[in-house]
Amino acid sequence: TACDVEKPTGLVDITTGKFNVQRDGTYRLTFTSRMSAMNGQTIRADMYVNGVRIGRASASLDTFDTQTNTSSSTILDLETSNTLDLLYNLTAGDEVYMMIDYVGTTSLIQSSMNYQIFFTGEWIRT
Known about the structure:
Layout: E1 12-13, E2 18-20, E3 25-37, E4 42-49, E5 52-60, E6 64-65, E7 70-71, E8 78-90, E9 95-102, E10 108-110, E11 117-125
Antiparallel strand pairs: 1-2, 2-9, 3-8, 3-10, 3-11, 4-5, 4-9, 6-7
């Protein structure tokens, strides 16, 4: 998750998952995760720079049937992989992070020893 070519380690605060940019330039910011929208609900992963949302990945199920004009009574679950891939101009000191938001009580983002979550920042140019 290092977001600087001069200092490849220690940029991420492990307790918050946030990292601070140390070099001005254009960065490729990526986030990939395995997400589960359970019981017909929604889960979102938002990317922020300095508290401003710059991207969103979302998984949801629409249980509304337009032919019958009713909602499905069948409980539906969705498991999917989502990816954000952005080119973004950053300034030294900018703070980049992800926030997970979900509707309901069972939607989740998944990870295991198989590494199902990736969050990276790659410096491209000044």
